[in-house]
């Protein structure tokens, strides 16, 4: 038997130093070269056989006969300017896909995910006598753009590593768990999601001559207002659905009516039929408003950042939950319920055709100010968050790998 807590406590200085380095050096999606170099070096030092696959890193540690367990961590940061006030805050800028220099921050906690996964990898490397089988530590790029898991699969992941029996993953969250707690949930836990870029076409004119224009700004305003009825009046109120217009861009000067306007829309749902209903509602509503405005050209739709539903296997979730209860105790384990965020994690186990479970762990202390993921002030407390995530990763995998 491995004393997981003692094992984690034994390397706390190393892990905290690693975490701070990662926090200070975030990289944007599908550009995580320095991050992958750090991960690869740590896994190699621990005795893992490593491969670079689809922009990510996979380390495999074989330890006799037994099942293979895959634990996945995502590794990318976000184009967000950090406002946590932490003494180790990121001051990095990175070049985005449009060639612009933008601030970068681990505003979604992927620095915790990497550090916890490397901590779990170290536990397995240093305690081989207590388990049997194969441990697969997978570090995935590009989660924030829904590109990374598909990139690894497209680069031959299924053929390049041992076939796992189960896949595991986790995410640090602002709630409902507090720091030191973990939360599991059987069935749908993370929503399916997608973004839609809508380009509206009008007819430009001088701002003093609106009668000679077809104003895409007014058209955009009508579209935004009308879209509010898709969820409110078309979706069954017992079904979860979110439709958010997160960006409107049109024009450059107050006295110029532009030719085009662009909307960026995001949707979430726990039901694939609802997802399709939302997409249909967007296209139908936008098209109708363009026709009403006499737009000279049909609107254009581009669907991107498409995320699958994360639907936890019942038996796998029950097994992990029982392992958590035995390790953490009832006061630190809860049912976290459904979370409206989305993930591409399930793309990997689905490619192997294996069951999976995905859980959350808390990052903010009881009574402390709490900021959601993707907020510039998202700064989970270092401990016990780091230790809890590391223990959870190891405990979950040991539910399959521990020697009898």
Automatic annotation (TrEMBL):
Annotated cofactor note: The Mn(2+) ion enhances activity.
Source species, domain of life: Bacteria
Cofactor: Mn(2+)
Protein name (record): Amidohydrolase
InterPro entries to which the protein is assigned, alphabetical: Amidohydrolase, Bact_exopeptidase_dim_dom, Peptidase_M20, Peptidase_M20_dimer
PANTHER family: METALLOPEPTIDASE, PUTATIVE (AFU_ORTHOLOGUE AFUA_6G09600)-RELATED, PEPTIDASE M20 FAMILY MEMBER
Binding of Mn(2+), residues: 108, 110, 144, 171, 374
MF-aspect GO terms: metal ion binding; N-acetyldiaminopimelate deacetylase activity
NCBIfam families registered for this protein in UniProt: amidohydrolases (TIGR01891)
All copies of domain Peptidase M20 dimerisation, residue ranges: 194-291
Record key words, sorted: Hydrolase, Manganese, Metal-binding
Entry annotated with the keyword Manganese: yes
GO biological process: one example: diaminopimelate biosynthetic process
